[in-house]
């Protein structure tokens, strides 16, 4: 019951049943914590942060102007509300890429149930099956947009709850296009990944994504048989769910383009232009826009 409550961001119920977990041994490393004492410490943290999160959501609902994006996936629609107030540059980058059609037909290439579903790019090294049934590792060159953006991890940064949408990265300030959706609260991600939105509709869709853990090129495997076991033991790993298309359904009335971008080595970014190539790069630099005014696509 405590574990199920955590899944639903119901921390009061989790606190009620938490003491009964002291003799429970978690089956998986990803299944939260290893001991009752650690569970209790984290629960206090989640309760405090959830109280803050609920207040922010009440304010956002009253304002009704946060940008929203709908992802049409192989499992159905996912609607995401974007936290422009706390992560304006990350949101600008996401909307910019959505409007350029960047996310169309990209896989959710890494799906770990009880943890997160990651998409918006692809693994750097993918595993394919040859015609003779053997496995081959081949390099992917489309893991991101060709540039990176800075993290937004200030004191007002949002935390990782179930349904949170956050930037994937390979270290500080290395985010680009890949993002992940949390299946459950993940305290260990706070302060390392920029939370820039939340799922407001379609979390049931995310829950049905096929589990898939791609091969890590930095991990040393003993032999090809070990690689084969790693690939085949994950159901659906050869046919991941994907984003068919993405569209912005609401945004504020100002330009959306990321700033502080850094080009990746040996890659020419298709968008946006590098700083200095535009007179007014970035977000919110127009002289005649009202920050309280929103745009709904398809309406005057």
What is the architecture of the largest domain at the second tier of CATH? Beta Barrel
Oligomer: single chain
> Describe the biggest sheet?
10 strands, antiparallel
End-to-end distance: 48 Å
Number of discrete helical segments = 6
Q: What gross morphology would you assign?
A: globular
Rg over CA atoms: 20 Å
Name the average pLDDT: 75
**Unreliable sequence segments:** 25-30, 32-36, 231-237, 273-300
User: What's the CATH C level of the largest domain?
Assistant: Mainly Beta
| CATH homologous superfamily assignment of the largest domain | Cyclophilin-like
Helix content estimate: 10-25%
Order of SSEs: HHHEEHEEEEEEEEEHHEEE
**Fraction of residues in β-strands:** 15-25%
**Strands, count:** 14
> Helix/strand/pairing class, anyone?
alpha+beta
Q: Please, how many domains?
A: 2
The CATH topology assignment of the largest domain is Cyclophilin
């Amino acid at each position: 019951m405590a574990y199920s409550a955590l899944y639903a961001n119901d921390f009061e119920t989790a606190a009620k049943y938490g003491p009964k977990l002291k003799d429970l041994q978690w089956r998986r490393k990803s299944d939260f914590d290893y001991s009752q004492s650690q569970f209790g410490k984290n629960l206090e943290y989640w309760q405090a942060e959830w109280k803050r999160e609920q207040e922010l959501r009440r304010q956002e609902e009253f304002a009704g102007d946060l940008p929203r994006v709908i992802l049409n996936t192989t499992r159905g629609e996912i609607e995401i509300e974007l936290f422009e107030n706390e992560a304006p540059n990350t949101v600008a980058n996401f909307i910019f890429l959505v409007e350029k059609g960047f996310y169309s037909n990209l896989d959710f290439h890494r799906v770990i149930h009880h943890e997160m579903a990651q998409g918006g790019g692809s693994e750097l090294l993918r595993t394919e099956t040859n015609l003779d049934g053997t496995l081959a590792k081949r390099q992917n060159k489309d893991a991101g947009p060709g540039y990176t953006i800075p993290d937004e991890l200030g004191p007002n940064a949002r935390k990782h709850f179930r349904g949170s949408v956050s930037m994937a990265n390979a270290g500080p300030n290395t985010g680009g296009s890949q993002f992940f959706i949390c299946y459950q609260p993940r305290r260990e991600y706070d302060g390392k990944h920029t939370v820039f939105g939340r799922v407001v509709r379609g979390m049931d869709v995310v829950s049905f994504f096929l589990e898939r853990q791609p091969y890590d090129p930095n991990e040393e495997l003993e032999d090809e048989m070990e690689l084969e076991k790693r690939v085949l033991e994950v159901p659906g790993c050869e046919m991941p769910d994907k984003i068919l298309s993405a569209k912005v359904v609401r945004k504020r009335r100002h330009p959306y383009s990321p700033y502080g971008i850094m080009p990746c080595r040996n890659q020419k970014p298709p968008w946006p232009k590098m700083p200095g190539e535009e007179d007014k790069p970035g977000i919110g630099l127009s002289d005649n826009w009202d920050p309280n005014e929103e745009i709904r696509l398809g309406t005057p």
